[in-house]
């Protein structure tokens, strides 16, 4: 459940940069959003593997 909380906090942290990129045209914020989304993807994959391993060991 700890990793799921990390996902939620990462999405919340990216919200300001997403607003800057989409509404204000700040390209540096777009770079931060892309990096954050890559981190989010990796974290989601870790969660998927953890769930699969827990399910299979039960």
TrEMBL record:
InterPro entries linked: Hc1
Name of the featured protein: Histone H1
Pfam family, one: Hc1
Similarity section: Belongs to the histone H1/H5 family. HCT subfamily.
Organism this protein belongs to: Pedobacter ginsengiterrae
Purpose: Might have a role analogous to that of eukaryotic histone proteins.
């Amino acid at each position: 459940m700890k990793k799921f909380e990390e996902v939620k906090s990462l999405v919340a942290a990216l919200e300001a940069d997403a607003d800057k990129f989409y509404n204000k045209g700040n390209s540096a914020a777009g770079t931060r959003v892309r990096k954050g989304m890559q981190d989010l993807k990796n974290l989601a994959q870790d969660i998927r593997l953890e769930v699969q391993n827990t399910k299979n060991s039960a």
